Amino acid sequence: MSRIACGMAVAALLAAGLPAGAAAKDKVLEIQVAEQLDAAINAGKAFEAAALFADDATVKEPGGKTLTGKVQIEAWLQLITAEAWHVDSGNLQLSDGGRVTWTASVVYASAKQLGVTPLDAFVEAVVLGGKIRSLVVRFSSAAQLRLTQARAKADEALARSLVDEVLTKGDLGRADAILSSDFANHDPMAVKATAALGFKTTVTSMRTAFPDLAYAIEEVFVSGDRVVIRGTCSGTQRGAYMGSPASGRPFKAEFIEILRVADGKVAERWSQRDSYTMLQQLGFGIAPPPPPAPAVSATATGQPVEKKKGWF
Question: To the nearest whole percent, how much of the chain has pLDDT over 70?
Fold first, then answer.
């Protein structure tokens, strides 16, 4: 705060009949704490930033999650400093109860990768006794929309890459780049091994049996951290498959992939193929599924049918 601005604040307090010296000092201290927080974050000093918080402080981060206590807050500060957050603040204002509010323009690494920086934000802190008791960081509605749209686009591209480059082309190096370190594969047909290795082994065995295996994407849906892909897969059996030697027969069947994306990686995968159609076309002689059993009537059992509860 400049000396001129501080003098104007003192004059306003005197006009209101308040003790100017103490109040002005408090105001300067609270705004200084807010400025020190931004400076520590910009310098990547998470521990210095954490030292500005009270032991029982709370933080509401831009994603909406509330953090309580220094341990959680320090972990969050380490994350955002690792993301190279840079905060350009302006219009710091102090109101009753030690509440400091300011606008900010935020730049950080993953948002840069999505091409959506800087992001407009609003920050609110309650500073008492020189310590931050609560902090709220909220991106503007426009910034949130830009982030959501950019993440959905990136997640769709990642999912398409898994289908086009890994499942269709068999690029296992690309699989290493796409899958998270704790990837979980829920494909019932997958080779039973560690999730990532089992997935890659299954891809290799499928491409050995069907060298021309191809997946054609027809629709992609993105909702939150889930991506759903629907389409058809096809191929010609040129190698052994499920204990059956090469038959030279082609197949074409529908498939669905459901992926959970976290931090730009595929963290979980659920996959289903129309195996009945596929195996029939390959000549496995799969019998059609039995028709549903008829409902048991009162005549067949000799017992009265229980009346169902409902409107009628």
Answer: 83
